[in-house]
Fold each of these.
Amino acid sequence: MKKTILIITAIVLIAGNSLFSQEKPSERNIRIGMFGAGALNMHSGQFSSYDGMLICGTFEDGSGIGWMAGNSIEVPFGTNFSFFGRAFFHKADGDFKSIPKDQPRVSLDDGTLVYLTTEHQLDVSLDYVQIEALGAYYVTDKVYVALGPGVAIPTHASYTQVEEIQQPFGITFRNGESTRQIASANFDDNPNTKTNLRINVHALIGADFPITKNLYLSPEAGYIFPFTNVLSDNDWSVSTLHAGLVLKYELGTPEKVIIKEPAPITAPETVTEPKFTPSPIASIKAKGLLENGTTLEFAQVTVTEENNNNYVPILPYIFFDAGDSELQSRYITLNSSEMNNFDESTLQDSVIAVYHNILNIVGSRMLKNTNANITLTGCLEPLDDGGNQNKLASSRALRIKDYLVNIWGIKPERIITQSRELPEEISNRKIAEGREENRRVELSSNSSDILEPVRLITHNSEVSPKSIVLQPNVKYDENLKSWDIEANYIDNTQLWKKSGNGSPSSSMQWELDRNKMIELARKDEKGNHISVKLKVVDNEGNTDEASTAIPIFYEKKSKYYDGEIVKDSVVERYNLIFFDYDMPLINKENETTFKTILNRINTNSSVSITGFTDKLGTDEYNNQLSIDRAKSVEKAIKERVVPEKIFSKGVGETLIYDNDLPEGRFYNRTVIVEITTPLKR
């Protein structure tokens, strides 16, 4: 496409040269002016839009209609040559369309399962300010061609993506429409993405036509070819074909104008007529303001809730400082009164915070399971732990036993303590981090209930937008006395109010109460909305009112690993952390959790498997180790059950937990298995 346009431009230039070569150019002076043009923006390349880490659509080659406007200066050199300097604004928008490769199945009213065909539409808004220097050659007195470099500075780069159902007919999204908005944001909001300067070359052909002695109107056509991409991480560029007009003023000595003094005119007698003041006419608009600063051209409140079950494995190790048997402060200990209020089902913090409650979790479970015993094995690192090492290893185990006996009231005979030098599974002793991991007490039990994973149930709620921008407008407001704006729910509950004297501001912001919006959305009423009303009164007592409705939508959803939205689903996440140091295989400590995973997978489930490593080792080695761990789990799952979708990947030493803590490194040697299963109706 680009080559074709360049060839056509070259042909036009050669034709213009041949057509007008018989005319002799005349002398010219410096010319200044302004120009405007319509533009055909041609987007080429391939890129994807994202929602967090999930791909929402892959797009190739689009186009859009834009415009250009700015100022120009022309400085002649000799008879035929000139320098063109230009600065202008370029609206380089584009539209893209994409058909997703993976088509989910939906159930019709009669129970028939059919494939859902949708189309993703991406509207890209790009604004540039371009500065360029062109060399121009006048092939005749009027016709010129120009060529030169330009630099375009991005001032705005955003996108809005919607999805539209193509087939089957009659199916709608949660909002009751066949079209829904997926995302709207600025490209620069992604920390890994930056908008680039657009380095380009600009080719022009034009002709000057005099309007007056010093004023010229010049039609122009041109093509802008880019050398750089729009974004730093996508092979996506924008070339532009444009046509428009330039209004030029040639600097020079103006002709003398003789102005004759007009004959005196007798002013007519003025007649004062009574002043008529029209009544005010009110109107109001509402727009959504997103967290990233993007303003939507419409206002609606959408509350999205995701329910997740996260199964956190208990790392059965407690770590100690070198030469010390005291519990480190990061482990949470309780007194006797606090112990009575402890309930592991209320733990809603991070995985590491759950682990730091390990002594309380074990104590609570042993109270409930009176037949369970535990064994505490004290270990040490000879290179770090000085003094009486045998006594130190035993002291570490006894310190934990004392806590369980004195605080949780566990009978001493139910807790066996023993000691050894290094652990059975040894971490790398050549580095400080590995030796730190060897200084520990290991917990084991005759009952799997004592060390089984902790189930965390989370309810994530998102409210969009964060605020509403209200834009009141009053026509004939010269005599306005006061105004009043109210936002009320459908049951007339007042949510927001503002009033004042004179004319209202053209824009005012209403920060939404997040908890209140969640409460209203959960009602899921038919026609659920907020009504915003503007009332105005002038000094003559004339009034007017205007209102607008802000709909409220409520969605319960989950996400597959490939970005497909699934409503009314259960999402469960499991961590397999018991991978031996530097090994990809599932060991025996993972068997209980792995059996639970297999029992929770149905044939209609979607399974996402992600492998991780700690920071020890090279990036290349860790990346391969994480892939091998994920593949090992995928293979083991497929040997027992084949879900509808299964996907595995390794992300190396991508930071999940604090690598500076030994427990953080153990939890980073993990494979996360996420199971999404649609609920049966």
Note: The mean pLDDT is 84.
Amino acid sequence: MQLGAAAGKQFPDPVGSRRSAMRRLWLGALGAGVLVASSAGGEPLKYTLGGEVAGYADTDNVYVLTPSLSLGASQPTGAWKANASYLVDIVTAASVDIVSTASPRWTEVRNAGALNVDYQPQNFGVNLGGSVSREPDYLSWYVGGSFRVEMYDKRFTPLLGYSYSQDTAGRKDTPFSVYSLELERNTIQVGAEIVLNPSSRLTLSTEAVLEDGRQEKPYRYLPLFSAEIAPTVPRGASVDLVNSLRLSGEMGERLPDTRRRYSVSGEFATRDGDHTLRVSERLYGDTWGVLATTTDAIYVLGIGGGFRAWPHLRLHLQDGASFWQRAYVAEPASGQISYPSLRTGDRELSPLLTATAGGGIEYATSTIPNTGWRFTGLVDVGRTSYFDALYIDSRTSFLVSLMAGHTL
């Protein structure tokens, strides 16, 4: 039996027409921005063509191959620039969560496109962007923009940004009009870039993300345990052990319908000749009770002959959501089964620590900026420790990326 499976809406959203109108308005404004920017000035344009192939694999049997293409155009004076990109994600998974539900390995393809335009005629600038992403059972689109002003001889540049996105999750081969879970997201960003001296800058920003809607995964079901057994289920318990301890039946994931995310971040960058150091810190908290800190550092070294290389380190530590439980309890009550009203099997909402180390190398055929060919290779290895989750207690991931770009 399936207990409490997330119920999707059964009929089209009555406010869908207003959302469609908003989407058309934003996309129209974005298109108008591209036309206005492209008509500004009579200078010949510079074009940049780029391609990337990225691969991801982890010890939980998830594999992703992502080829992508991008095309950019700009004025030599830098008054405006635009960029369009397209990517394909090919995901193959047989993770422990899939195995635990006796589901077969699956392969899925995601297509995504994005368009961005930036226009800065004087000391103020405007940026507009939009994107759309489609999977067999998922649709997501985004529109947003920001406004900035250069002040005090460009030593201080405040920024104000806003974006809106909508995600629709469903089931494969089922129309959204029959079953769908919708999520709306409004994001407000306030930040500033401060030039400390000719070789150093500090960037500060704060962000509020207001999420409303359903964030459950339609295919995610959780095992149930008796009140006596639940405390004895160990961290990282195997599928076989969980199956031997669990009650019959399962329940669907159920998350709060609202989430408010808040973050404060800062990045310090300094340059000394051919060497550049960038260090950033982000503090995060939300109304689900998740608190997190993320530290990132990269040191770019010019090694001559058109080559640059860099090591990269990242550390992410977080607490779990207030409703997170390793083992959820179901109890008979008045002839029915009682279980928590909020529950999740997403271990990314559990307490965890991720450490990432890697690096990259880049070769440029020309020392003049924005000319010639540029080739880049990246490798990152991450290790995540889950302190209070079922099935696995750690995961190792590998990310490799090869990029090439040419400016005409």
Note: The helical segments are 16-39, 96-100, 239-245.
Amino acid sequence: MSHNVTRQLHPIIPGRIVRTEAMRIPGFPATYPLTIYVPPAYDSSRHHALPVAYMFDGQNLFGDEGSHSGGWHIHEALNRRAAQNKAVPLVIGMHHGGVSRMSEFSPWPISEFEGQGGAFMEWVVSTLMPKVNSEWRTLTGPENTMLGGSSLGGLMSLYGFTAHPQTFGKVLAMSPSVWVNDGELIRYFASRPLPEVRNVYIDSGGKELRTLTWCKSLVDHLTERGMVPDGDLQWRLDEAGGHNEPTWRRRLPLALRYLYG
């Protein structure tokens, strides 16, 4: 006699999503809330500390309401990882200021938009990170701290990584806007030593012609400097990929696997 029994070997216990009050940043016109993903392991023990992922465009990371093409649904990917007993970070989703995003999320000017990304990153390092570390149980140091994002968020993640090498050691850069200011990011990398602690994930879609061309140039520069493909550098070309949240959502589990095992 046979029985059709469905058994879930790894029940998914969802993490918490917390929305903070909006904060002001000196010199910036908007106010900036955070959306935070708290893994289930954090609440299971008051002694459990976690690595931290600081991610740009926090309004797009979770549900679909923050973007015309949907969200990353990062909480779903992380909940699945937690159910498989894989490493899961505390995620700090940093919202942009709407019409000022082009200035906030680029260290260099884009057309008429002033490049304020350097000042934004200074606020992240000097103000936001101490606040997070005081309010949450975190693991610190570059080996435990990631920057992540897509498009301009990917540009900022790569910039912040090389501008603050003692702070950030992991990068998740999906379809990063390396093209800004005619590839200024590559010249910025060339002017500085490579960070000693580094695991860098970069990808692009085959349908993103300008983004793809500039991403390949950056990857070539990094490998010429000594970074090792599938070692401290993972480059992924998604032939069918476009420049949109559904594509980034589809690639997200692969990026997390590289960065967190």
Note: The helical segments are 40-44, 74-83, 101-104, 117-135, 152-163, 180-190, 209-224, 245-260.
